[in-house]
Amino acid sequence: MRQSMTIIPTLREVPSDAEVKSHQLLLRAGFMRQTASGIYSYLPLGLKVIQNVEKIIREEMERAGAVELLMPTLQQAELWVESGRWNSYGPELMRMHDRHNREFALGPTHEEVITSLLRDEVKSYKKLPLTLYQIQTKFRDEKRPRFGLLRGREFIMKDAYSFHSSQESLDEVYDRLFTAYSNIFSRCGLNFRAVIADSGAMGGKDTHEFMVLSEIGEDTIAYSDTSSFAANIEMAPVVNTAVKTGEAAKELEKVETPDQKTIEEVSSFLDVPAEKCLKTLLWKVDDEFVVVLVRGDHELNDIKLKNLFNAAIVEPATPEETKEILGVNFGSLGPVHMKTSEIKVVADAAVQMLENAVCGANEDGFHYVNVNPDRDFPAVQYEDLRFIQEGDPSPDGQGTIKFAKGIEVGHVFKLGTRYSESMNGMILDENGRQKPMIMGCYGIGVSRTVSAIAEQFNDEKGLIWPVNIAPYQVHLIPVNMKDEAQKQLGEELYEELTRAGYDVLIDDRPERAGVKFADSDLIGMPVRVTVGKKAQEGIIEMKIRENGESFEIPVGELLERLK
Ligand code: ATP
Ligand code: MG
Ligand code: MG
Ligand code: MG
Which residues form the Aminoacyl-transfer RNA synthetases class-II family profile domain (predicted)? Predict the structure, then answer.
């Protein structure tokens, strides 16, 4: 590619609204531009990098037996109503309607679409297992879009879904995709760690996140200093608190409060076994405590708890909404934030209520009147909570817990029958019986991965792309385009390298040497080949971006040296 023919709008100044290195550098190096909050255009260099990451993903996905397809971005509300997520997904779902006033959403993820597709096309266990993936633009109306591509509102995701007739088959494909993910992030050159992402899975089998270790990561990882144990801290405390709240829950039955429902009534209202509907989880987010009342059966763990927490903090529901969603009137007992159809997230003021009286009135006109924490029931002692901490023994009994920050670039998940049950995705099994398909889902943030790479590979001069990811492998710079010898040798090398299969960017602009070199360092191709004053003697300079080493070589040696 000729620089004179493309657009690489480099900036000398650090854009004021860009807080982190990757965001600053991707803007400064002319890889992208923001059009609106969390929405970006990928300029030619940015697109190349995206495509290189996609290429690695495609190769590894295909190797793991996954097949590519492409589903629509526009999804009709009916599908989301069927799964129950139209109401529960919350404000991150970008909703809209067509000219006939029919409701739609811009897909943040595709469980609904793919389940509806497969339920119509696959009727027998004989067609399974099947793993399908796509690479596509996703939309999430994030409350706080930030750090450039790391948290966008429009971003590129690779999402895959697997379908099975047995748990063993799911386990096998999950393991295969786990390996594929490890390969993908290794090939991207990233320093990452696979971590347990879910409370129900402290055994570590059912969901993992792939975390790039980075100071700017929004997640905290608790890991053992001697074993392979690693968990997302947002999930780690659950091990401890679940037990505690389990016990606290038992006492609930003893609490005598006006209008209180019995455990059995709540259980039948929530349609969950009694012992399960009493499992509450306590969490601390931004110094605010929230209670999550979890229906304890396993599929529910697929709901992204962290999403819920974000939503819980930023979008408090009105008491009316709460009542509509929860079916529980919290009356004067304070704000209830949000929930999905199966998980109820309640904030601070409602903690006491939930801890002590999970069985709140759930019928019209029923609510607690004149009930005060401490007087009518004991207030929760926050100090009693046990959050996992640095220095704790690792849950696997090996080593001590340390903390690190991570960027979630991938997430693999055993969904089970969460979607096939709610959306009627049935197949006939070996015995001719109808049963729901068992599913897994697997996501990679493609644009986020590009940012994570940029975050990890840079220096004070600019970006330093790993060879696999770099937009061009060679940056060819004829220093003075007015010098006939330089210009001509530059053109010859451009031809020769291109013919030899290299992706070459030639800086054929009539710019000063200083500008060309500064731009070159900023955009960060792995190798720079400079054609300067010694062009006439057939001597050029080769410089390695990563370590800054440079050496003069005869033109004839270039191809050999590049190998
Ligand atoms: P996060 O916890 O960062 O909000 P998530 O858990 O909501 O991410 P998933 O639903 O697991 O995200 O989606 C799969 C992948 O998509 C994530 O692992 C991440 O790499 C990427 N991703 C999610 N949200 C965004 C976003 N707003 N911008 C860029 N990439 C994203
Ligand atoms: Mg997450
Ligand atoms: Mg999210
Ligand atoms: Mg996730």
Answer: 33-466
Residue nearest to atom 18 of ligand 1 (CA): 410
Name the region of 478 (left: φ>0; alpha: ψ -120 to 50; beta: rest): beta
Backbone angles phi, psi at 333, to 5 degrees: -80, 10
pTM: 0.78
Q: Cis bond leading into 129, ω under 30°?
A: yes
pLDDT of residue 219: 87
Indicate which atom in ligand 1 lies nearest the CA of residue 310: 4
pLDDT at 364 over 60: no
Neighbours of 129 (CB within 10 A): 18
Strand order in the sheet with 474-478: 504-506, 474-478, 527-531, 539-544, 550-554
Q: What ipTM did this prediction achieve?
A: 0.99
Report how far ligand 1's centroid is from the alpha carbon of 121 (Å): 29
Location of structure tokens 């992030």: 185
Distance CA 518, CA 506 (A): 15
Q: What is the pLDDT of residues 421-462, one digit of tens each?
A: 999 999 999 999 999 999 999 999 999 999 999 999 999 999
Q: Is the CB of 88 under 6 A from ligand 1?
A: no
**Is 151 close to ligand 1, i.e. is its CB under 6 Å away?**
yes
Instruction: Kindly list the protein residues that place their beta carbon closer than 5 angstroms to ligand 3, a single-atom ion.
Output: 307
Q: Is the pLDDT of residue 48 over 90?
A: yes
108 CA → ligand 3 middle, Å: 10
pLDDT in tens, 487-544: 999 999 999 999 999 999 999 999 999 999 999 999 999 999 999 999 999 999 999 9
Closest ligand to C-alpha of residue 210 is 1
Which is the closest atom of ligand 1 to the Cα of 209?
Answer: 18
Instruction: Give per-residue pLDDT as tens, 381-390.
Output: 333 334 567 8
Are residues 121 and 161 in contact, defined by beta-carbon separation less than 8 angstroms? no
User: What mean pLDDT is predicted for residues 188-200?
Assistant: 82
pLDDT band for position 374 (cuts 50, 70, 90): very low
Q: Are residues 357 and 377 in contact, defined by beta-carbon separation less than 8 angstroms?
A: yes
Check pocket membership of 304 for ligand 1, CB cut-off 6 A. yes
Please choose from 32, 40, 177, 448 the residue to mutate so as to test ligand 1's pocket, defined by most ligand atoms within 8 A of CB: 448
Q: Give the closest residue to 132 by CA, choosing from 105, 155, 111.
A: 111
Ligand 1 mean position, distance from CA 408 (Å): 7
